[in-house]
Structures are given as structure tokens and as C-alpha cells.
Design goal:
The chain has 9 helices and 15 strands. By secondary structure, it is of the alpha/beta class. The protein folds into 2 domains: 178 residues, Quinone Oxidoreductase, Chain A, domain 1 (Alpha-Beta Complex), CATH 3.90.180.10; 139 residues, Rossmann fold (3-Layer(aba) Sandwich). Keywords: Metal-binding, NAD, Oxidoreductase, Zinc.
Length: 369
């Protein structure tokens, strides 16, 4: 993985300002982990991600090193997790209980600099700017983020800060999709397409909500043993079927599942997920990143069968107001975060961590700085 787009922070200065500027927070990163979105950005899978040099990474936990003018909700020494989908608390969307979108600091892969003055907080050895990534840039010893993108973690659970890293993206995205976006009900039937960390987090969320049947769909058989630990009750490997996946799921669930979750980012998979739900009330949630310009593979008239489809960003969680409560639920064991950490490495082994993800061997590899 050695090339001009390398994601390592070798040669990168820690943010040069003594403090974050107005409404900014500087964080000393203690733990960070790797998500498929980081991998996709490294590979330059879509135009929005092709901005280099850039510091990737968006799942992390750390300690506040300093704060800029106007920051009141966190202070030096606080334990925090950065979030890619911020919450300013002031815009029309933040004030609306129906959405977790933030007009000012929502996820934006095109954003490369800080909102306050349009400049970067990173420089290389020659003093030239290095771009930010997804409001966070956590593959660095220090990072600077807008205060809207920082969530304080209760000091009583600071001993579990390593696990809190997973709340920055993967686990929150998957569990939240089951809890907030779909509102999975006890006794319901669920199909999860793609058993990576996000898909398995969906399964864990559905299990916690009392789903009676959770069908996992993946072409990698090694994911099945991991899935059982997350509550998956049945498995389908599409390469072993002689019929479309949705037909098999309809047979297994007697007409279709109540909820399906597409966690792959593939249009053909999305169509199978949509058709696998029960007519009249089936609900499909899209979580996979679709980087191609192709449109939805659904005919408008198919929506007249009563099936619904929606997307979910960060699991529907309003980061600053709702994530602390979710963190407390995790510490009580409602969601078991330990099951998602399959590997741990020092940060200088980041290339090995990426290879584990590429090979499908890891759910989350936590890197410690």
C-alpha cells in the first residue's frame, strides 16, 4: 500500500495552532479503527474522495488537549469521540426531532478544510496544507475538529474508551439503523445483506430489540460464525443458490421479512433486499455507500405494493445529544462492543490493519497510538 496516496501520518506535523480556533477542539487520539469508508477513500472509489494529500480515519476516541474560543460543552482533559456527522444544535435540521442531519456539519465527503476560515489544520514538513477527511481525520496523533463533531464520554466509562471508538461510526450506524431508522419490533423478521461490521451491528441491534429471525446474507462463509455471536439465526450464501436471494428469503420467512438492511453498496444487492421484504409493510434501509452514478433499480410501481425504502446516516443518532446515552447502554451490555473488536495493533502497523480488512479477516482492528 505504498504509493502517493498513502494514508500514513508519517511526516505530518500535529496541528500547528496552539489551540483550536473559534469553536474548534484539538484532540489527542488514543485509539482509532479502520472502516470500509477509509478503504474506499484510500482507493479513490469516487470523485469526492480523491483529494490528496489527506489524513483519513473517522473512528476514534481520545482526550481533549485544548479548545478554542466559544467551546463550552467540552474542556481540556475530557474523554471524547469525534463524529463524522455533526450536530450544531442551531440549524433547522438539528432542531427537528425527525432527522439527525445537520445543515452546517453533516457528513460531507467533499469537505476538505475547516468551516470557520476555509483552511486546513494540518501541514507537512514543508509547511504545505494536508486536507481533512469526514470532519475528523483520526489517523494522526492529534486532530482538530469543529466542536459540533465532538461527543463527550462520561468519565465513569473512560476505562472502556477503546470500545467507545466503535461509536464514532460502525456500531452506531448499524445498531441505530435497527433502532432509530427501522424501529425493529419484538418478534419481527429481519434480513441483513452484507455481514461486515455495520451489517453485524444491525444484527446486534435487531437481536437486542427481540427480533425472532435474523437472516444474514454474505458470500464469505467465515462471516457466519461471527454472525451467530451477533444473533443471526439463519445464513444465506448467494453463490450457493439456484434461485434469486429474495425468493429464498420469502420462503424462509413465509412471505418476506419485515425489515431488510442493505450494507454492501451494490445496486443488485439493494434490489434483492427490497424484494425480500413482505408486501404491504416491508421496510428496506440502505446503509451501503453507493459510489457509482447509477440510479435505484426499483420501478416506481413496485412501491405500490406497500414496501418502503429509505437511507440511514449514522444510524439516525443525533450525535451530541443521543450518543452519550447510547454509550451508557453499551456499558450495560445492551450492545456488546467487545464482539466487534477482532484485532488490535499499534498505529505503526496500520498497513497490516488495512490488509486484514481487505482480506475480510477483521471486523474492527483498533489501533492504539
Amino acid at each position: 500500500m505504498e504509493n502517493e496516496k498513502h494514508h500514513s501520518t508519517n511526516g505530518v506535523r500535529k496541528p500547528s495552532n496552539t489551540k483550536g480556533k473559534k469553536m474548534e477542539v484539538r484532540i489527542k487520539i488514543l485509539f482509532t479503527s479502520i472502516c470500509h469508508t477509509d478503504l474506499g477513500a484510500w482507493h479513490g472509489e469516487n470523485e469526492a474522495q480523491r483529494a490528496y494529500p489527506r489524513i483519513l480515519g473517522h473512528e476514534a476516541s481520545g482526550i481533549v488537549e485544548s479548545v478554542g474560543e466559544g467551546v463550552t460543552d467540552v474542556t481540556e482533559g475530557d474523554y471524547v469521540v469525534p463524529i463524522f456527522n455533526g450536530e450544531c444544535g442551531e440549524c433547522e435540521c438539528c432542531k427537528c426531532p425527525k432527522t439527525n442531519i445537520c445543515t452546517k456539519f453533516g457528513v460531507n465527503p467533499m469537505k476538505r478544510v475547516m468551516a470557520g476560515d476555509g483552511t486546513s489544520r494540518f501541514t507537512n514538513k514543508e509547511g504545505k496544507p494536508i486536507f481533512h477527511f469526514l470532519n475528523t481525520s483520526t489517523f494522526s496523533e492529534y486532530t482538530v475538529v469543529e466542536s459540533a463533531c465532538v461527543v463527550k464520554i462520561d468519565s465513569s466509562i473512560s476505562h472502556g474508551l477503546k470500545k467507545m471508538t466503535l461509536l464514532s461510526c460502525g456500531v452506531s450506524t448499524g445498531v441505530g439503523a435497527a433502532w432509530n431508522t427501522a424501529n425493529v419490533q419484538p418478534g419481527s423478521k429481519v434480513a441483513v445483506f452484507g455481514l461486515g461490521a455495520v451489517g453485524l451491528a444491525v444484527a446486534e441491534g435487531a437481536r437486542a430489540r427481540g427480533a425472532s429471525k435474523i437472516i444474514g446474507v454474505d458470500i464469505n462463509p467465515s462471516k457466519f460464525s461471527k454472525g451467530r455471536a451477533m444473533g443471526v439465526t439463519d445464513f444465506i450464501n448467494p453463490t450457493e443458490l439456484e434461485k434469486p436471494v429474495h425468493e429464498k428469503i420469502r420462503e424462509m420467512s413465509k412471505g418476506g421479512v419485515d425489515y431488510s438492511f442493505e450494507c454492501v453498496g451494490d445496486l443488485d444487492v439493494l434490489r434483492e433486499a427490497f424484494l425480500s421484504t413482505h408486501e404491504g409493510w416491508g421496510f428496506t434501509v440502505v446503509l451501503g455507500i453507493h459510489s457509482t452514478p447509477k440510479m435505484l433499480p426499483i420501478h416506481p410501481m413496485e412501491l405500490f405494493d406497500g414496501r418502503k425504502i429509505t437511507g440511514s446516516v449514522f444510524g439516525g443518532f443525533k450525535g451530541k445529544t443521543q450518543l452519550p446515552l447510547f454509550a451508557q447502554e453499551c456499558t450495560r451490555g445492551v450492545v456488546e462492543l467487545d464482539k466487534f473488536i477482532t484485532h488490535e495493533l499499534p498505529f505503526d502497523k496500520i498497513n497490516e490493519a488495512f490488509q486484514l480488512l481487505v482480506d475480510g479477516e477483521s471486523l474492527r482492528c483498533v489501533l492504539h497510538l
